[in-house]
Write a structure and sequence with these properties.
Layout (H helix, E strand, L loop, with lengths): L1 H25 L5 H26 L3 H17 L3 H11 L8 H24 L4 E6 L2 E6 L6 H21 L3 H14 L2 H4 L2 H22 L7 H17 L2
Antiparallel strand pairs: 1-2
Helix pairs in contact: 1-2, 1-9, 1-10, 2-3, 2-4, 2-9, 3-5, 4-5, 4-6, 6-7, 7-9
Length: 241
């Protein structure tokens, strides 16, 4: 079953990637948080794609090298999602994140967790073992390190989700964070790693939906309307000196 689910997760993430790309093109502003979200989605596409083709590649140096990149991408970019959530909060005028100090603190926390995660993954480079699960094949750490950078990221995003919900009456950043947290704490010995991969897709979906909500207050934006808006924004940029 996992051999079917991971390709489906990959396709879903690809759709979210291109949906966000269109939303970025339709925005008149260059938003760092949205760009970060798109980079995180790319890293998750890579993650699920490697797992999807693992059984085809088989045991060996190629799959091991691809897996190392998978771990490094996850450790590098996932903490930056707290910056994405922070920018959402800034855009809806949440009071707590309007000060420069609070934004600096979140940036420092994200960069610190990135650095810690990369160092840990580098130290655990030789600690990989082959793991088969319901038709999939991948390399995983034999002696894992507690993923507290990921948990701290989820916690910060969820807290910001509460503030966004109270200000905008939009609960999906909060709901996405709660779903991600619940999926992360379920022991993989009971359900395997596929549940966490699935809730990651839902979490990312809640963030992409939030970006669309911020661009369109009534949340109604058809493909035709989106393409028209992209054309208008592109025309406006071309007129600028």
């Amino acid at each position: 079953m996992a051999a079917i689910l991971y390709p489906l997760f990959t396709v879903a993430l690809l759709w979210l990637f291109f949906r966000l790309w269109k939303l970025r093109k339709s925005s008149e502003k260059r938003l760092v948080g949205v760009l970060i979200l798109q980079v995180v989605i790319f890293s998750l596409i890579y993650n699920n794609l490697v797992i999807s083709v693992g059984s085809l590649l088989g045991e060996g140096n190629l799959l091991q090298s691809l897996s190392l990149v998978r771990f490094l991408l996850h450790a590098t970019f996932t903490p930056l999602l707290m910056v994405t959530a922070m920018e959402f909060a800034v855009r809806v005028e949440v009071r707590w994140v309007q000060s420069r100090l609070s934004r600096i603190v979140i940036w420092l926390a994200a960069v610190s967790l990135m650095g810690f995660g990369v160092v840990v993954e580098w130290l655990l480079t030789g600690d990989l073992g082959l793991e088969a699960f319901l038709g999939t094949l991948r390399y995983e750490h034999l002696h894992g390190f507690p993923p507290f950078p990921a948990f701290l990221t989820i916690l910060v995003v969820t807290i910001l989700g509460v503030l966004i919900w109270r200000t905008l009456k939009w609960p999906w950043v909060l709901i996405g964070g709660i779903v991600m947290f619940v999926g992360s704490v379920i022991p993989s010995d009971l359900v395997g790693p596929v549940v966490e991969a699935g809730v990651e897709v839902l979490w990312i979906g809640s963030l992409v939906a939030t970006e669309q909500r911020l661009l369109t207050p009534d949340y109604s934006l058809s493909e035709g309307e989106l393409e028209s808006r992209i054309s208008q924004v592109a025309a406006g940029r071309s007129k600028k000196p």
